[in-house]
Specification:
With 198 residues, the protein is mostly helical. 66% of the residues lie in helices and 4% in strands. It is globular, with a radius of gyration of 18 Å. 32% of the residues are buried.
Length: 198
């Protein structure tokens, strides 16, 4: 009896690539817009007690963020696509509310919190498989915070990672080398490209 080798299909490869995003989401992020004047802040520092001391958001904002974070944490433990999507939508709702509140528009701590929520929402949309909404979220991030980025603990870029994960066209060697993404993600994208073309 002969056996055929099993190769990943395009859909399976995409799911595998998206699952790698889970690893990156568990990493911490830092913000940078002007590294000479602003300290970096870890994404895991965003909690209601710290945020309350810094910019005193409303009770509704605290509840919204706490609720969205709880859904996201539960989605991580059960690895549920539906819960990743629910967490992303809940986080998106909090972001929209925060962006509409003009009192926070000039507050740097609030802006960093919103940027981090946008990154978490984007990663959860990716993990849920909703790449269209994730792409919109990345574009929204770039529009609202031009020339700014978030960085994971390993100093890889949130925007570059999202670009690599959401790219519909194969990334060329020069594009890949210019992206500040993790070695694991780079290897996975190269492996996927190889198997799709051989």
């Amino acid at each position: 009896m002969t056996t055929k080798p099993h190769f990943y299909t395009k859909k399976a490869t995409r799911k595998l690539t998206l699952s790698l995003c889970l690893v990156f989401a568990l990493s911490a992020c830092t913000t940078t817009s002007n590294p000479l004047t602003k300290p970096t802040v870890s994404i895991d520092k965003i909690n209601t007690s710290h945020d309350t001391d810094t910019y005193a958001p409303s009770d509704a904002a605290i509840r919204c963020q706490s609720h969205a974070r709880n859904i996201a944490m539960h989605a991580e433990t059960v690895a549920s696509t539906a819960q990743y999507l629910a967490a992303a939508k809940a986080m998106n709702s909090c972001i929209s509310s925060a962006l509409q509140n003009s009192a926070y528009s000039n507050n740097q701590a609030q802006q960093e919190a919103i940027m981090k929520m946008m990154a978490v929402a984007t990663l959860n949309f990716i993990k849920a498989g909703d790449v269209i909404t994730a792409t919109r979220a990345v574009n929204r991030f770039k529009r609202i915070y031009p020339h700014q980025d978030l960085y994971f603990e390993d100093y890889t870029s949130f925007l570059d990672t999202a670009t690599a994960l959401l790219s519909t066209e194969p990334l060329g060697a020069s594009q890949m080398s210019s992206l500040n993404i993790s070695r694991a993600l780079r290897d996975e994208i190269e492996r996927k490209h190889y198997w799709l073309n051989h």
